[in-house]
Each structure stands twice: as structure tokens, then as C-alpha cells.
């Protein structure tokens, strides 16, 4: 497979490892970008972008980044905290009165951002088309009761509801749609090719998402799959399948257009690396808010993902001792994987910002081994 792009010669082994991903016949397309100290040292892409395998992945190809989107929404919210328009520890219901229903009158933005608000799923079955109706989804979450007693401080990842919960606060505090807020606050100032709510004119650049077959993933992935297939009422099942269109919509125009800042950001590896470089160098948040975002708020068994997770505010924190939960570099790394393999993160100790994007979805729950291997190798190349 011919790899396009640029790499500093120090990272030649990383370029070779990226090329080796395509030895697997199921690997379709991918891109990798790494910045160190704000300087781009790797910017590579290869493979195919379309469903039929006839269109090459280009320099400007973008893809659905799934949950890599969440930290962008969190940073927009934290900027509003800095401006005094949101508060981490004031009840959400002050800004969104309907949210107080069903015992949620004391839930805060902080709890939403670190997945401790007990709202990873909606119990009542929703129609497939509800996914694209903001008012329906926000209303359902405003009426929902927490799935557990919030006094126990446990957490359960909100794979899709995070977008309406945090997004509704962005709408009310910033006076614009979540994607417009993220564009104005993050993407445009940093020059990132990143979009939540993609314009139809950009559709021709979007890589078609496909799933690899035959790989069941690790034990965590198999555990989650077993529950979702056998327990339709379970929290985990509802989180990923209600509305039922959540898991099979990523190539649809309606999905691309939607402002859903949990899961439908579209961008490239460059935009992920650029975002984390902007966090590391202070362009997006002052040091005190970045420290708040990246300090541990919750760690332990995740009620949704059924594996151990560790969260800051809108980001996952590294768990070096856990094979499926480490970004592959320093213990202070923070960022977010996306479903199927894409990943963005920062390693503050190395001043390294990392972005990996793929349209060949793997089955893993947290970190995909492809991204981990590339990250570890980047560290070795740095010495």
C-alpha cells in the first residue's frame, strides 16, 4: 500500500508501521497525524475512502470520528464556564428547568461531563427517526430518571446521550447550535477541518464507514456484546440501541447533518492532533480549567461499558496497567477513543498530540490496538 504525506525521518519506523496496517485485507483507509511541541512530525494517509474501494483516501478526506467528538463539546462548555455563562457545580435545571424532573434537580454540568449523572440511556423505546429530532431527544432526557442512586458516585459512560445533555446546555448558554459553537470556539480559531453538523457540500469528502469481520475483540468487547444481544432492557443495551438507529446510521446524510456533539464529529487526523496541540499550548483553555478537565473525576467499573474506565471532564484518562484502557504513551495522557478505532489524545510529558482516523471499524470497547501500537512507536521514535 502506498502511503502519502509527510514524516520526519526520525519517525520512519512509524511510517512503516502505518503502512503495515494495510497488510490486513480488511483495512480500507486511515490517516495519522502527530505533533510534538506544536510541530507536525507525521502527517500520513493511505487506503480507500469509498464503499467500493475505487476512490483513494486523499489529503482532505474526513471521516466520522464518533466519540472523539466528546472532548470538543467539553472544551466548548468549559470555555463557557470561563466566561461565566455556565458553572460546573450549579444545577443544570437552573438553565434548563425541565431537566429537574424525576429527581434530577441537583445534577450539575460536572456530573454530565464525567458520566456520573446516571443518564447514559433512555428507558422508553424511541422511534428510529427520534435520533434526528433534537427536541424529542432533549425532552426524553429531561423526563428520564437516573439509572442509579447518584450518591454512590459511580459512573456509566453516556455514548450518545452525552451529546444532547451537554449540547442542550451549549445551546442555552451560547445561543447557537452545538456544532456552530464548536466551530466558532475551536475549529475556526485553530484552523481545524472539524465539523459537527456537516454541510452537504462537504459530503463528497467523507469516507464510507465499514466494519471489519471475523474479529470478536477482547474480553471487554465480548462481555458488552453478550449483554446487548441477550438483555434488551439492560442499561448497556439501551445506551447503544435506543433509538435503534444509533449503531447503523453513520453513513446516512441525516447523521452527517445532525449536531450531535457526542458522536458525529467529522474530521481528519490533522484536526484531532491540532485540537490536542491547542489544549497543550493554552490556546483553548487556561491552565486551571485544563487541569480541572484532566484531573480524575471517576475511576472504576463502568456501569455502561462493563469494563474499568477513568474519566476527567469529557475526556478519558490513561490507565497504564490496563491493556484496553491505555493510550500507549505517558501515564498523564488524556483524550478519547472513538468507536471502531479512531483516537485523539495528548501526552503532556512529551508535548505530543496524536490523531488516528480510520474507516475500518474494529470491535474494541475502549482503545483499538492499531492506535495503541502507533502511539507506542511514536514514543520510541522520540527516544
UniProtKB/TrEMBL annotation:
Residues 16-374 form the Beta-lactamase-related domain. This is CubicO group peptidase, beta-lactamase class C family. It comes from Azotobacter beijerinckii. Pfam families: Beta-lactamase. It comes from the Bacteria. InterPro entries: Beta-lactam-related (IPR001466), Beta-lactam/transpept-like (IPR012338), Beta-lactamase/esterase (IPR052907).
